[in-house]
Amino acid sequence: MRDVAERAAVSAMTASRALREDPRVLPATRERVLAAVAELGYRPNKVARSLRLGHGTGLVGVVVTNLANPFYSRLALGVDSVVGQQDLKTVIGNTAQDPDRERSLVADLVARRVDGIIAVPAGADQRHLAAAAAEGVPVVLASRPPVGFDADCVLVDDFGGARAGTERLLAMGHRRIGFLGSPPAVYTGTERLRGYRAALRDADVPVDERYVRQGQRETAEAAAAAGELLALPDPPTALFCSNNRNTIGAFRAISAAATDTALAGFDDFELADALGLPLTLVAYDRDELGREAARLLLDRMRHSKGTPAAPRRTVVPTTLVEYGARHVGPGA
Amino acid sequence: MRDVAERAAVSAMTASRALREDPRVLPATRERVLAAVAELGYRPNKVARSLRLGHGTGLVGVVVTNLANPFYSRLALGVDSVVGQQDLKTVIGNTAQDPDRERSLVADLVARRVDGIIAVPAGADQRHLAAAAAEGVPVVLASRPPVGFDADCVLVDDFGGARAGTERLLAMGHRRIGFLGSPPAVYTGTERLRGYRAALRDADVPVDERYVRQGQRETAEAAAAAGELLALPDPPTALFCSNNRNTIGAFRAISAAATDTALAGFDDFELADALGLPLTLVAYDRDELGREAARLLLDRMRHSKGTPAAPRRTVVPTTLVEYGARHVGPGA
DNA sequence: CTGTTAGCGCATTCAG
DNA sequence: CTGAATGCGCTAACAG
Description:
CATH superfamily of the largest domain in chain A: Response regulator
Largest sheet of chain A: 6 strands, parallel
CATH architecture of the largest domain in chain A: 3-Layer(aba) Sandwich
Distance between the termini of chain A: 69 Å
Mean pLDDT of chain A: 91
CATH class of the largest domain in chain A: Alpha Beta
CATH topology of the largest domain in chain A: Rossmann fold
Oligomer: homodimer
Radius of gyration of chain A: 26 Å
Number of strands of chain A: 12
Largest interface: A-B, 57 and 58 residues
């Protein structure tokens, strides 16, 4: 920058001000500086800038468990679309479900002095997030509520959506309805299980615990679990799945077993209409989840000085989507 | 950090060294420092560190056009999995196909002094990347070759894969084969079109230009374009698509038209086996693309001092995958 | 093995 | 309106 200042025949200070559009700089002076910048190809060093400012690296950290899952990539995109408008960049950290990795990722983001963190914590232990928040880094949780500390969060209506999806199966006349879900430690999964149970209870249908399978993360595991349910002596006539991984796995099991088991699940997904099976899905706006999380974060960042406002919690609503057996065209 | 040093009764310098595992520090001293760190909850400020070092923010920038496309999220994941092992973090920038956004994103990454950039440039103008490389930031291109400057890159065998896919349709006896692809400015799309043309030429089948439709980015556009081809007086009996967006769009058009048009395309995708249609896909290891790009980048970062090595180019091979009409189970 | 000096590039403070 | 001094937090380079 000194080179620029010299070339423009001003002090480094004036050059700095000119670049930050400080109104106190004479237009003519600014022009000279800008010209020098262009000629020398100078670029301000944002690292030095943030060090000096003591805050504001212009980065927002997003911590997710699996970016390959469209759910998380859309979340990240939603965040980026909002913070990008404030000239903030998104740093994405993928934990691959590893709590240690999540912990170190968050620690690293704090050490980098990111302006804020949006996280989808994998497990129940959120002390690392609590620590980050305690150090003054705004934290927003997405799709999971904070446990053990205060933070803004944006949730999906897991309970209501799952109940509505299960009610749909009940309305179709099913009484033996299975449940396939994520490991119990996953908040959304257990919340959706609660919704499933509530629907059955309200319909006076007893829950047969043999029909409840938690713990499947990927489609292969889900297909295996679904296959086991279908192989029971009195198999369920319908399945409700807590996420798209389980729904797709269940679809494969049902296809393989050649039964006409009814299927419903949480999360819409591409080509759901093309599977040649009637399918009820609990849908919601995935991008909106990220956008809302980003909005909460920006708000928190703006008011970081002064009395911290009470933590806010928003809930994204769900809708039921029905796909027909042959919605897209003729079968084989 | 001064507080830590004081608490441990050493100088700031020694504290710094202790934290960086400098072997010259007495174990007992290190213990004292570590204890002080724990008690004070101190975290080293990585911003200051990178400023001092003058390089090495520990960040790798990944610039993609659309993170919602599994292709790009997998690429990013592949990159992250490799650079993560070197304690580097991944900054993801989404350009949403906007050249201006891409330009400013790259400029920003350079201003942030990222250690390297992996980019999938959207258009043919790569001057911003050339500028970054010229400023000493290692740049690796993924799935597109550099134009107008030298850089490492990792490509997919676009030409060979498309030719093989088209040959498969020819081998099935088709002679009227349509082509659906991305806008001409997209390198992969035109390369795959070349492969398609080569296959037809080698089989002495003239290319009917009415059958060639470029310009579809999303499935809806692709479905419309495919629908137009199928509505021709002498419609193609088979379609080759240059990417998964076009393949899925074509699938929808074929389903809607209830024809038995054969379908082949570049890019494997989830549920491709469940569409109830025979389908030939040109597959390749998407994660590997990112991993290899990361490897090239790490290599380049390591040898950034000294004579720059000649640019390297690796090509990821493709394989043909066949999905049957009713692979997963019974139809409607 | 440990401490002192100096400076990375920028922006706030206070003088001109 | 512009300039000079000072320090953000950290670490190479040189003492001791």
